[in-house]
Amino acid sequence: MKRYMNKWVLLGLKVIIALVWLACLWSQTFAAPILSEAMAGLYSSQVAMRWPYLIMGILFLVCVEIAFAAVWRLLSLSGSGTVFTAKAMPCVNWVLGCAATATALTVLVSACFLISGWHDATMQTMDYYTIALVLGVAVLAEIGFMLLMVVMKGLLRAATDQSSELEQVI
Questions:
Q1: Residue 87: its pLDDT value, please?
Q2: How many CA atoms are closer than 13 Å to the CA of 157, on its beta-carbon side?
Q3: Which residues contact 61 (CB under 8 A, 6 or more apart)?
């Protein structure tokens, strides 16, 4: 099988994935609890949402970790020259599933925040709309990423079909 990717590029990507994965673990352990507690401490409407935000944040980070594990597998397949085989398709499906779950969690957090923070006297209007805007942009970016992954899955499927047809000819 032909190798499609430079081994140094693959190594660099794997180092970055490992660092992001470690950052997700750190965030699950430290950042998410601190942020959910800070949000509950700043605004009276968010006190009841501390634990739901924490749980949804940790689940979001788990989705990112699982997606990066699938990407790691795709990089390994690329390094071995077998990326255009049926082995790659489940990895792409895992990334898509994780992206869909993470998007659903972001939409849920957005809805919870929009509802719970609507009439909070302690929250300034600018804070409310800024947080709502950031969450909305995050949802749009996640939807864009999912659509991009659907296109990439189609391209992988086409390349896999063409690769297997060429192997039969040769």
A1: 85
A2: 9
A3: 24, 27, 28, 32
